[in-house]
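Researcher: Re-running this chain for the archive, since the previous output was lost when a drive failed. Same request as before.
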Amino acid sequence: MNEESKPDYEFIPGRELCEVFYKDTVKPILEDFYPDLVYSAAHMGSGSDVLGFDTSQSMDHGWGPKLLLFLRKTDSNLYQDKVDQTLRQHLPYEIRGFPTNFTIHEDGNLIMTPITAGFVNHAIEISTVSDFFTEYLGLFPSEDLSINDWLTIPEQILRSIVSGRVFYDGLGELQPIIARLQYYPHELWLYLLANQWRRISQEDTFMGRCGQVGDELGSRIVGARLVRDMMRLCFLMEKQYAPYIKWFGTAFSKLSCAKDLEPLFLQSFNADRWQERETYLVQAYEYLADMHNRLGITRPLNTNAIYFHNRPFRVIQADKFVSGILSVIENEEVKKLPEFLGSIDQYIDSTDVLAYANKYRRFCSMYQ
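Model: Regenerated structure tokens:
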């Protein structure tokens, strides 16, 4: 459709629309045609709507009434095509004013496309629980999910699972998986906290040093990197998975610490001189140090910034948080992990890796 012919839909949150789509249309059709079929239905995976961050702008592609329909492995071969065809023939052409029919845009994305006759080209993916998670995560999140598995699933992928909605779990398989992935195991969480503090310790003096030699651009870049690392530390401290970069700031603003830290971060960005920038960063360091102490995972640590040796740069001595946290880890498998590595989000910054866990795992398996 060209811009002039596009209908003006009144936005409602995608998760809400998908739930109505399931309850009002998909569920009755399945009950009528396949009353004995055992299945689960959910909306999870990629998409701003899954995270709850969609707006009216999101409706231009990859958005609309859709869901995942899961069948038992024993039923998949027999019913997958039949259910697909039944839905194509019997779905209404719209729900809440939104088309249930989709076409593929020239850029490869699905886009809602109204029709008044013919079969509905719906956006209901029919699969098994095992096939979906193995494809999306690159592995199946079983009860014995290993530490290495945890460390190599990007946070944004994990968030897109736990932020989703399960509309019906007749298989009884989805809810246990979501509960299992809700957040990192405790000792692994400690390990990630330590490594995030380490990232801060590795660069906290460079912002001032760049400014001292007249490299204002470099100072701002380092300052921005430190802000990003502190924001990631906040997600860890509040036990929330961080989303991908588009929604990183939006999700951060919903953390309890954001009301105090966001003004400091913005003021550090707006500072014209490195000394002023340092003032705001130091206040943020000290706030984070106090947050750490309130977690109660180590003995109370000094929350005051000090000068770095005899140089005019103030630091929080983040290394003391690293060593303090590592010292309380008891799990032997976690204790054997490299101290200078962390999770995939802490040592890789590549969209092709972090957004497509399955492709990354397949690539790695080629070289094992």
